[in-house]
Each structure stands twice: as C-alpha cells, then as structure tokens.
Amino acid sequence: FHIGEREEKCIIEDIPSDTLVVGNYKVQRWDIHKHDFLESAPGLGMFVTVTSPTGEVLLSKLYGPQGTFSFTSYLSGEHIICFQSNSTRFAVIAGSRLRIHLDIRVGEHFLDESAIQAKDKVNEVNVRLEHLIEQIHHVTREQDYEREREEKFRKTSEETNSNILWWAIVQTLILLSVGIWQIKSLRDFFIAKKLV
C-alpha cells in the first residue's frame, strides 16, 4: 500500500486469543528524478503501533526501513496495526510518497530446519510432532473463536427477527384500531346527517 511521508495508515486484523502474530515490512521512497520507487529508504524508519480490542497498546516501537515485528494477542477480536514514518521533514516539504510491502502471518510457527538436521532422527520426529501438536492447538483455538463469533451473530439475528415480529404485530393492531375508528366515525356521521 502507499502512504504519505507523514501519514499514518492502520490495518485491522481479527485475531483469536493467545495467537502469535509476525509481520514483515519494507519501505520504499518515491524518487522524483527516476519517477519510480527506490529499492530502499535509508534513514527512514517506521513507528509500528498495535492496539488490542480494548484499546490497550500491545506494541509501540520504532523500526528501520525494513523489519520484523511480532506480538501475542491475549484477547480475541479486532487488533489495530498502525504504521507511520519517522520523517522529521516539515509537512510542506514532506510530500513524498512511500510504498510499504507488508506480510502479516497470524498463528504461524516456524521450524528451524538447520536445528532439526543437526539432531538425530528420533529428535527430528519428536520436534516435528511437537510442531504438529502446536499447530493443532492453534487450529482448535481458531475454531473456538469462530464458534464464538457465529454464536454472537446468531443471537443478534434472533433478536432482530424478534423485534421485527413485534413491530409487525404493533403495526397490525394500530391499523385495525384506526380502521375500526374510521368505520365508527363514518357510521356516526351518516346517522347524524340522517343518511342511513
């Protein structure tokens, strides 16, 4: 994505609780002379701020023009990840555009292949088995979180349907009472004018 040099850009990620999130990014600055983005942006860094669903700041750190950040969510919900450059140029001068390449991995756990190769075959199987068990736990947490969201959505839908039903009943009663009142008023009018 592209942002201005002094602009802040935020991304919302829906993350289950107790989940590791790893993000890699790279910043490129627009070069006016080449009319292209430079391969790197030396001297330019990024403030990365991560906010939990309750508004608590989980991570607030300055990184370089390219880096990796990570955090663990302790609550399920929408986490806000914000990026802003550390440019010190005045707002009038700082009109440069930045391109940010971002890769966010939610719940991934990486195996260190060199460490696995150094161990014997029994340990390799053991490490891979532990990794699979950890991934199974992650999938289970993800499914539990999706079930919670589905249950909340179902309750909201049922409440809405119930409210619509009651509103329809109230409208019908009002319509019937207005109709009865109109018939009675017309009947009384005709009787008073001796048309009936």
TrEMBL record:
The chain crosses the membrane at residues 164-183. InterPro entries: Emp24-like, GOLD_dom. Residues 8-106 form the GOLD domain. It is found in: Endoplasmic reticulum membrane; Membrane. Pfam families: EMP24_GP25L (PF01105). It is a single-pass type I membrane protein. GO terms for cellular component: endoplasmic reticulum membrane. Its main location: endoplasmic reticulum. SMART domains: EMP24_GP25L (SM01190). Signal peptide: none annotated. Keywords: Endoplasmic reticulum, Membrane, Signal, Transmembrane, Transmembrane helix. Belongs to the EMP24/GP25L family. This is TMD11 protein. The gene is Tmed11.
